[in-house]
Amino acid sequence: MRKIFLLCLLVPVLGASQTKNTVSTFRVFPKIDKSLEFEKAFTAHVQKYHTGNWKWRVFEIESGPETGGFLVVEGPLGWDQFDTRGNLGVEHTADWAKNVMPFTADRGASSYAEFNEELSTIGISDYADKIIINHIYPMPGKISGVTDLIKKMKKAWTDGNESIAVYEVRNSGAPEILAVSRLKAGLKELAPGYRKPFPERYATANGDGSWNAFQEEYAKNVEKRWSEMLFFRADMSSK
To answer: CA-to-CA distance for 148 and 152, rounded, in angstroms?
Structure first.
């Protein structure tokens, strides 16, 4: 009986340590004249080595400053799982180095980000094939201010039935918040008239004069922002 009681006490602790709300991402760019060779070698590598916890979801970057590259997403997992990941073995590393890297350009980036359920309108694993990533960089010391703005934006997102997943970048460069629009209905969601304009929905959700106040607070709290469109590549992702 005592053992059962102790086990019950441990359950919340074990659950907290295994929270799977973190994703690891990296960006890879094929050489301009080797895109076909890159995709073939990359896909073979993914299918052979990236299964189970280490499955890859691969997106092709369709717009923005990194057009032509690929975003690779691993997770969601817990920090403890990333901590014990290792390099997936000598054979895995050698295959990447010998068969994929010769076709890649000399650029790239990697990062970790935690899903913020409170700020999101959709679950972490409720995916879409077409997404827009909005990169939001707070002014120094203004992270809480940006968070407050997003809480108000969430009301308008909800009113417009927008699927938005919000992540906070961790230990990967400058403080950054990612608001990922998951376009469940595809690109037609971007068309005028598909839903009411965002300023109108924001004002309805937050009260008269709120949109003007939002723009003023945005200017005070956000250093810069940029966005990009990405399409899921099922053929290059883990099966």
So the answer is: 7
pTM for the model: 0.90
Structure tokens at 33: 């004249």
* Secondary structure E strands in the chain: 22-30, 56-61, 70-77, 104-115, 130-138, 164-170, 177-182, 222-232
Per residue in 164-204, pLDDT (tens digit) is 999 999 999 999 999 999 999 999 999 999 999 999 999 99
Domain boundaries 20-114+232-236, CATH class = alpha beta
Query: What stretches of 50-185 show up as alpha helix (H) in DSSP?
Result: 79-83, 90-95, 143-159
CB 146 within 8 A of CB 136: yes
Grade residue 5 by pLDDT with cuts at 50, 70 and 90. very low
Altogether, the residues listed in the chain come to a count of 239
What is the rounded distance in angstroms from the CA atom of residue 48 to the CA atom of residue 135? Answer: 32
The CATH T-level fold of domain 115-226 is Alpha-Beta Plaits (3.30.70)
DSSP lists the bridge partners of residue 41 as none
- Which residues touch 7 (CB under 8 Å, ≥6 apart)? none
Distance of CA 111 to the CA centre of its chain: 10
Phi, psi of 88 (to 5 degrees): 65, 20
- Range list for CATH 3.30.70.100 in the chain: 20-114+232-236, 115-226
